[in-house]
Amino acid sequence: MNVHNAELVISAVSPAQYPDTPLPEIALAGRSNVGKSSFINTLINRKGLARTSGKPGKTQTLNFYLIENALHFVDVPGYGYAKVSKTERAKWGKMIETYLTGRKQLKAVVSLVDMRHEPTADDVQMYEFLKYYQLPVIVVATKSDKIPRGKWQKHAAVIKKKLNMDPQDTFVIFSSETKEGKEAAWQAIESYL
Ligand SMILES: Nc1nc2c(ncn2[C@@H]2O[C@H](COP(=O)(O)OP(=O)(O)OP(=O)(O)O)[C@@H](O)[C@H]2O)c(=O)[nH]1
Ligand SMILES: [Mg+2]
User: Which residues form the EngB-type G domain (predicted)?
Assistant: First the structure.
């Protein structure tokens, strides 16, 4: 998809605030700082529409971005950020679970993992959660610009194995720095719309 129009529609914390439209939605899940907001910006050719930051935990709400009047990207707050209180974490869990398990418009989840490292226990748990609810997942390995190309396949194999990845799900090697995987990611997303 070649995107010319994209806008933040709403930052929501509860279902009453979700946009009241039948448009398909693609959610972005992943650890804090993995590159979810950067992924959105790359796919829509915009530097700073989705807020990014060196500070983890920047995205705290479900941010709905309307893309070409055709779909919504839903930027989900990252998990695995240590400096968050138990109460905050429980609130986060409830908000995410409510959205991921109850939203009819949700067609697939882009699950982002840092390509440099083996997926964390949180990453595995998120993937298993999505599979339990039978959601199609596109696994996106971010920050590939930080790994030499010759090691990509090895890192990819480690990630797929650790996640016990469903062969029906798509795997994309990605970088918001080099735009590696942008077309492959769009192709996977469009297959679910
Ligand atoms: N080198 C490199 N840096 C990246 C890439 N993607 C994101 N970053 C950097 O990683 C940091 C976090 O990126 P964000 O897109 O804000 O991450 P996020 O997952 O939205 O983080 P939260 O909103 O806190 O959950 C920023 O400093 C980005 O510039 C990438 O592909 N390559
Ligand atoms: Mg973010």
Answer: 22-193
Round to whole Å and give the CA distance between 117 and 163.
12
Nearest CA to ligand 1 atom 8: 35
pLDDT tens-digit readout, 119-175? 999 999 999 999 999 999 999 999 999 999 999 999 999 999 999 999 999 999 999
DSSP state, 7? E
* Whole-number CA gyration radius for the chain: 15
Report yes or no: 1 and 69 within 8 Å, Cβ to Cβ: no
Query: Ligand 1 pocket check: which of 32, 33, 44, 83 to mutate, most ligand atoms within 8 Å of Cβ?
Result: 33
Domains of the chain: 6-190 (3.40.50.300)
CB 76 within 8 A of CB 62: yes
